[in-house]
Amino acid sequence: MDGSEYQRTIARPASVAGFGYWSGRDVRVEFRPALPGTGIVFVRGDLPGCPRVEASIANRLEQPRRTTLQSGEARVEMVEHVMASLSGLGVDNCEVWVDQPEMPGCDGSCLPFVHALEEAGLATQSVPRRRRVVRQRLRLAEDGAWFEVAPPEGNQVELTYHLDYGPHSPINRQTVRVRLSPPTFRFHLAPARTFLLKEEADWMLAQGLGTRATPQDLLIFAEHGLLDNELRFPDECARHKLTDLVGDLALAGCQLVARITAYRTGHKLNARLVGRLLEITEGECMRRRCA
Ligand SMILES: [Zn+2]
């Protein structure tokens, strides 16, 4: 068993401050070490009694364009980049203390969270990582989007994303494939930023949402291309969709080992995939422990 097969936490606390894209509110996130078997748990330090929200698919609340979790009265929103950063770096156990419901958007990527976690350093724990290996093929489709899942090669998680918004979209067709590991996540996925079409950004503004974010805080594509910003990768959008998928898969509460191909998928179908993969695999995970 190599080091990556044991659970990990962070060696010391680390924090990230910013504002939420949707709410515009200032928020501070503090990552704290946690015991083996804890999983990822959000803690609303601003509410009486500091209620905890386990990062579990059972706590997921359907909201457009983001991943939201709720337990009792306590809610945390837009958790996908925090989850992706922890999972991508191989952190199994962590308390994520927040003083607002919505996570900071920062530059729209996972990098600010990754930098904070790297600065804290990781600590290997003496308990094996929770892992479930997919042994069968699966296809899941909804509204023109689909997943195809196949058994892994060895213990390797392999993710492929096909982004295709049609021939008239300002975002061209792009495909990204990664063999997931802390270094591939760190260098190939974590820097990829959130993106929106201009009409989606205009719709948000009309609802009084997203008023603090500018085209420098995330990628906004108008009819003729990207507004006031430069891409970090030619296929940055597809890479970002993979970071979102990494974050949503982490809601399984264990590592799901499979080859997963995604076409035009988003948070809603990602969550359905997690549910199906938990049904067809066996092993220990948060969801079973809580059930
Ligand atoms: Zn995202």
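^ zinc ion complex. DSSP finds seven helices and 20 strands in the chain. Residues 80-81, 194, 240, 244 surround zinc ion (CB under 6 Å).
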